[in-house]
Design goal:
Lipocalin, 3 domains, four-stranded mixed sheet, single chain, 7 helices, globular, Cytochrome Bc1 Complex, Chain D, domain 2, about 475 residues, alpha+beta, about 25% strand
């Protein structure tokens, strides 16, 4: 699928098995999408490609000492399900001002078709702009295959990246050159740790105007460098090897002040959501940013139903946070249900049950515990006392007897605590504890004990006491951590 991979275009996607009919012949196929934006379709009985996969010449490396593979495999059918390569035509052009800034930005990089190799960072160039990025067009989230029609619904995101090579200086280095964006990311993460943290709201603009940021890759005035759609669905007829339609999934960053007066179509949301295809509908939600800091929705999200034949949006409903995996459908008592895994940095993890009516309208059957009303967090005294006992038994050896922190564990009181948790959803604190503690056996502390631990931490940080004990983690969704004045 990729020779001598220089772009991190590994095969991260689980392949799909499906039967298709090509030129009157029934074929048991194996269908593999890739970060490249290609769909590779093989006869799984013989291993042969259903349509020719051609070896075509690609740009070669100019880095001293590096020899790239002269050709790469290009499937002749079906067409790519996302954009490939980077040219000036791909740059954002909502306004002349934005387009000019994008042209200036891109002038400092090498542009080229798919498989243009990473290049040296020089005084004039910062490396190579590549699309898709190392996160790909497609990834592990894969698409959905309809066994009745032979149509594959590819779910992808359009996001570039910059590959700039630097000569190594470490005497222990095993390579002559390296791509330093990993080090830059770590520096950014360290900077992020040292300041009070708050998630961006849906559509909110990052403060840094240009270059690489933590919310979605390469930016111009807080907007993606390239044209939309940024998240898309593409229907591919695998009986003919043709594309049927492409639609954007989600509105995208339309709340930006530079876009407020423009009449733009849906721009699509970055992320890795997972699709579900049924008899008539295709279901797809917004991906949560709990999975990937640079893609996904922070906070409330949407779950959508599309007409699978045309891509027309039939209905959408609100979710408290984005999806974290694939939806599943089944019948119970004569009613079709859809279960959706959801989660968020300020929410934790959970499942949502939805019902589908005979009128093809998606209605929410979410439990009453999923609330949009947020109140300042408080604690129950008896529950906090139980939490103190749990803390002494299971946490104090690392976090200190007085929650002051230790060499390998953060403080759970005072300024260090509030610098990270002020204005965060209390469910997020619960989620951090239950998913990471204790270090040698994460997730082994019972839910009731973790809730008591949260109550004890709230008490230790001077939050007001009173009220009934918290019975489930879902109740923490409606409580916000607010630093006492």
């Amino acid at each position: 699928m990729v020779h001598h991979d220089r772009w991190d275009y590994d095969s991260a996607t689980p392949p799909v098995l499906g039967d298709i009919t090509v030129d009157g012949k029934r074929i048991k196929a194996v269908i593999a999408s890739n970060k490249t934006g290609f769909l590779y379709v093989f006869d799984r009985a013989t291993g042969k490609p259903v349509w020719p996969i051609e070896e075509r010449p690609v740009p070669q490396s100019t880095t001293p000492g590096e020899e790239t593979w002269p050709t790469q495999p290009f499937p002749t059918k079906p067409p790519a399900f996302d954009r490939q390569g980077f040219t000036a035509e791909d740059l954002i052009d909502f306004t002349p001002e934005l387009h000019q800034k994008a042209l200036e930005f891109a002038s400092h990089y090498v542009l080229g078709p798919l498989f243009t190799p990473p290049s040296l960072m020089t005084a004039d160039k910062k490396g190579t702009l590549a699309m898709p990025s190392a996160w790909g067009a497609g990834n592990w989230n894969t698409g959905a295959f309809d066994p009745e029609t032979g149509i594959y619904y590819a779910v992808s995101m359009t996001q570039p990246t910059a590959y700039g090579l630097k000569k190594t200086t470490d005497p222990k280095a095993t390579m002559a050159y390296w791509i330093p964006f990993g080090a830059d990311e770590e520096a950014a993460r360290q900077q992020e740790r040292n300041r009070p943290h708050r998630e961006l709201l849906p559509g909110e603009v990052a403060k840094n105007d240009n270059d690489y940021d933590e919310t979605g890759g390469l930016k111009i005035n807080g907007l993606p460098l390239m044209k939309p759609p940024y998240g898309r669905i593409t229907a591919l007829d695998l009986n003919k090897g043709t594309k049927l339609w492409t639609v954007a999934n989600g509105d995208g960053p339309r709340n930006h002040p530079l876009l407020k007066d423009l009449n733009l179509p849906p721009l699509g949301n970055l992320g890795r959501p997972v699709a579900l295809v049924t008899k008539t509908l295709l279901f797809l939600g917004d991906a949560s940013n709990a999975l990937y800091g640079r893609a996904g929705i922070a906070g409330p999200a949407k779950f959508r139903a599309y007409d699978k034949a045309t891509g027309q949006l039939i209905s959408q409903i609100d979710l408290p946070v984005g999806t974290t995996g694939g939806p599943m459908t089944y019948m119970a008592d004569g009613k079709q249900l859809i279960i959706v895994p959801i989660g968020g940095k300020g929410y934790g993890a959970g499942w949502l049950a939805l019902g589908v009516s005979g009128e093809r309208e998606v209605t929410s059957a979410a439990p009453a515990s999923v609330s949009t009303s947020i109140s300042p967090a408080t604690f129950n005294v008896a529950q906090a006392q139980r939490g103190q006992t749990v803390f002494r038994e299971k946490c104090a050896s690392c976090h200190g007897e007085n929650l002051e922190g230790g060499e390998h564990a953060p403080a759970l009181t005072g300024s260090p605590f509030w610098s990270e948790w002020d204005q965060q959803n209390t469910r997020a604190l619960y989620g951090r504890i239950i998913s990471t503690m204790p270090p040698d056996s994460p997730g082994s502390i019972a839910e009731s004990e973790v809730i008591s631990l949260v109550a004890y931490i709230l008490q230790a940080n001077g939050l007001p006491g009173g009220g009934a004990a918290i019975q489930s983690a879902n109740q923490l969704n409606s409580l916000k951590l607010v630093r006492p004045k």
